[in-house]
Amino acid sequence: MPETILVVVEQQQSKLNRVSLETIAAAQAIGRETGWQVEIAVLGNDIAAIAEELAGTKAAKVYAIECPQLGAYSSDGYVHVLKEFLASRQPKLVLMPHTYQVRDFVPRLALALGKTVIPDAIGYKYENGKLLFTRQMFQGKFAADVSFSDPGPLWMATFQNAAFRGDMAQAGTAPIETLHVTVPEGVIRVQPGEIFKEARQTVDLSQAETIVAVGRGIKEQKNLAIAEELAKLLGGDIAASRPICDAGWLPLDRQVGSSGQTIAPKLYIALGISGAIQHIVGMKGSRTIIAINKDSEAPIFEIADIGVVANLFDIVPPLMEEIKKAKAGA
Fold first, then answer.
1. Domain tally for the chain?
2. For residue 330, is pLDDT > 50?
3. 65, 81 in Cβ contact below 8 A?
4. CA torsion 48→50→53→56, rounded to 10°?
5. Residue 281 sits in which domain range?
6. How far is Cα 282 from Cα 122, in angstroms, rounded to an integer?
7. Is 86 left (phi over 0), alpha (psi -120 to 50) or beta?
8. Which of 67, 92, 201, 295 is 20 to 30 A from 181, alpha carbon to alpha carbon?
9. What confidence category does residue 201 fall into, taking pLDDT thresholds of 50, 70 and 90?
């Protein structure tokens, strides 16, 4: 039997976190190089629909771990269920998305299993039969390749949001095995309260398909209206580099970069952003990057798919007019 890569996906309120698909794509890529088979596990209560969704990906099996006590997330419950499940299956490698939820329970899970975790990886290498995980150091200025010292099984690693593209996850038909488990009384010591809802003005940029981001080139706060109108026309969200958020022109939850959000939208339009490394590490996974900057030497052009060397105020208004014409004629 081949070794197994098990992807533990994340779902909340019966909705699959999009980053989970990125982790499945990573597992499939590793599997193609190592020859290891990919399996998927999802935990929760009444998760048949999510299991069916996951069965549409290329995997050897999907485990639907039904547990009535996991209708709402709890670190205690997840650690108890996953410890028993992983100990019984003994996969070579366990991959998870590097989300807030995973960051909450995975250290305790590793301790319970007597294992270590390589967190927040941005990629991997398979060289001379050895699997390496790449992690950023010093806010993305350096990258280090790290590996596990023990022979396994039960290596555990998490991948950073946007390290892989979710749409690259291969489709297939995977069988579903439903497991019914319970958590003994007294194990879950902290009862979950109401599900946290962000304020209306906040946004999870990691879920956006189109983003218009602004940098110092926007010049004044009042000029944000141009970028906001462009984002609205494209059905997207507005974001910014750190100087804009530091100045208070946009809230911190709109910041993209090493000290902000890491994203991988289908379309990323950078307006007046030079492209410092701290910003690049947060958006380089975008499928299509369009950069508008009057500085022809701006680093953003090194990763842009389309680069326009011009003043954004000369380009964006006529661009919006063309978008409006195209929508009117559609």
1. 2
2. yes
3. yes
4. -80
5. 205-329
6. 11
7. alpha
8. 92
9. very low
Q: pTM score > 0.85 for this model?
A: no
Average pLDDT over residues 216-231: 94
Q: Residues 69, 30: one domain?
A: yes
Q: What percent of the chain has pLDDT over 70?
A: 96
Tokens of 304: 């842009």
Which whole-number Å values give the CA distances from 148 to 23, 90, 151, 178, in the listed order?
19, 16, 7, 31
Answer yes or no: is 262 within a domain.
yes
Please indicate, yes or no, whether residues 143 and 251 belong to a single structural domain of this protein.
no
| Strands 237-240 vs 210-214: parallel, antiparallel or unpaired | parallel
- The set of long-range contacts for 289-295, using a CB threshold of 8 Å and a minimum separation of 24, is 292/316, 293/217, 294/217
Residue 72 confidence (pLDDT) above 90:
no
131 lies in some domain: yes
When the pLDDT of each residue in the chain is averaged and rounded to a whole number, the result is 90
Cα–Cα nearest to 50, from 24, 80, 79? 24
Has residue 188 been placed in a domain?
no
Look at residue 221 and tell me whether its pLDDT is greater than 90.
yes
Q: Work out the number of other CB atoms within 10 angstroms of the CB of residue 155.
A: 21
CATH number at residue 209: 3.40.50.1220
**Both 78 and 151 in a single domain?**
yes
Q: Is the pLDDT of residue 96 over 70?
A: yes
The reply to whether 166 and 238 lie within a common domain is no
pLDDT over 70 at 195, yes or no:
no
| 8: in domain | yes
What is the Cα–Cα distance from 272 to 284, expressed in whole angstroms?
A: 16
